[in-house]
Fold this protein.
Amino acid sequence: MRVSHVAGGVLLAVAAGGIGFAVLAWRSEIDPVDPPGRAAFEPADIAQGAKLAALGNCLQCHTAPGGKPFAGGYPLETPFGTIHGTNITPDPETGIGSWSEQAFQRAMAEGVGRSGEHLYPGFPYDHFTKVTARDNRALYAYLMTREPVRAEAPPNRLPWPLTFRPLLAGWKLLFLETGEYRPDPERSDEWNRGAYLAEGLSHCGACHTPRNALGARETDREFAGGFSEGWHAPALNRDSTAPVPWTRDALFDYLRTGISEDHAVASGPMAPVVRNLSDVPDADVRAIATYVADRMGAPDGPPPEPVASVGQEERGQEHSRAATIYAGACATCHEPGGPLQFQAPVALDRATSLAQPNPSNAIRAILHGVETPDAAAQPLMPGFANALTDAQVAELTAWLRTRFSGGPAWDGLEAKVAEARSGRSAE
């Protein structure tokens, strides 16, 4: 066979592959429309859309710090780079004002913008595809009746070739399963409502599920724990390491108020989730709690004895410097009878942050403190980033882990403290 014939065959195969990929990746533009006025929507749809937007935490990722609501610009840090939330106000030039409902429905179900461009899965359409067309219609009504804001989101900071959006068609081919949520007839209405919200619009698994090297959820490990913006999102299934097993009522209290005295205070990316949930009915929050509690399974027996009550003095001898830091910086709030009692105490022997397989949350709480889910209130715990060195935070974190959880030692703490202090994340 002549070399020219081989080369011709290769070129033909490459050309055929290119055409096939172009067909796979191409999506048509949907014609622009004039922004529909408020009169175009039923008041009931707008009101329902407001609740759904809160359940979807839309405000958080589509609002820049200090910016106008839904006007975009929020920097979502991912392992691949920074993706900025887009403007979803009805501004026709920089927002979605020229989007028809058809275009909005397609974006939610398939992750494709009005112009036919593939959207990055930082917009969690792999969850939103489960949302019903009726709920999408209500969301569209709500968003199209917000104040239009002219604001261009900053460009994403992603390396090549991730800036080449047609590649996302291949990602979708591998990982995107489209279709609305299908109720389980063997389950209660409340359970199905919770599953619909948790797996769909509220996209709990986006943070609480591990991801593979291409950024897709490992669906065979759904809710087994993941990462979000440098914070560890703990497992919401039987892999949970919470010292006290979560119950439906404890989950409801946590999602409703941001505090569960036997577990944690909502911090990091979870704080705005709880803040937004304050605008939705109890029934929806309880439904999510019911579904998640079922995935976590029933507790096996009574809560374990606090680790701190067993040999805590002996444990403290091993890290005397860390124990001194604890006595000066932490014990005033965290020890019973301390002069400055914590506003909403979570006993450290029950704190999920100290029992997790990853120290990220404990480190970030020490460095940056804990904010209440109510942004207008005072922080629940001050940060010590300006008072402690990386080495001191690492020693304190190791000592807290040993004294209060009894779990295996965390590795590489000082490097993880430096990452958290700088805002970088290796996760």
Q: What stands out?
A: The mean pLDDT is 88. The beta strands are 75-78, 81-84, 226-228, 231-233, 259-260, 264-265. Residues 324 and 396 are 9 Å apart (CA to CA).
